[in-house]
Amino acid sequence: MPDKLYWSDEEIRALNGEWEADEHAARVRDYGEADAATYPARMAESYRLRAEALGPAPPPQTPVGPEELDRIVDDLVRQWRETTPSGSILERTTARSAARPKGPEEGRDR
C-alpha cells in the first residue's frame, strides 16, 4: 500500500522519469544498446501504422431510450428463441415467464 494517497505533479513526473529510465536499462540489458536506442522511434512508427490501418475512432453511439431498449431486448429474445435447438435446456429457460423485480413492500427472496 502506498505511503500516501496523492502525489504532486513534480513527484509524478519524477516517478515517470524513473520508470522510463528503468525500462530503458532493462531494454539495454535484454536486447542491447542499439535496440534500446531505436525503441521510441519504432513504437511511434507502429502507433502511426496502426492508426492508419484502423482509421479514425467511430463516433460515440447515441443514447437509447426506454422504448428503444425494450424493442432491442424483445428482438434479442425472439432471435434467441428462433435459434435455440428444440428440446434443449435453453428452450425450457425461454419458456419461463420473464422475471419481475419485487417491490419494497414484497420483501426479499431470502
Keywords, separated by commas or semicolons:
single chain; about 110 residues; mainly alpha; 2 domains; about 65% helix; elongated
* Percent strand: under 5%
In helices, the fraction of residues equals 55-70%
Distance between the termini: 38 Å
Model regions low in confidence, pLDDT < 50 over at least 5 residues: none
Largest sheet: none
Please, how many helices? 4
Give the radius of gyration: 28 Å
The overall number of domains is: 2
Mean pLDDT: 83
- Count of extended strands: 0
Silhouette = elongated
**Which H/E pattern describes the elements?**
HHHH
Quickly describe the structure:
With 110 residues, this protein is mainly alpha-helical. It is 64% helix and 0% strand. The protein has two domains: 9-54; 66-97.
Could you characterize the architecture of this molecule?
With 110 residues, this protein is mostly helical. It folds into 2 domains: 9-54; 66-97. The protein is built from 4 helices and no strands. The protein is elongated and about 65 Å long.
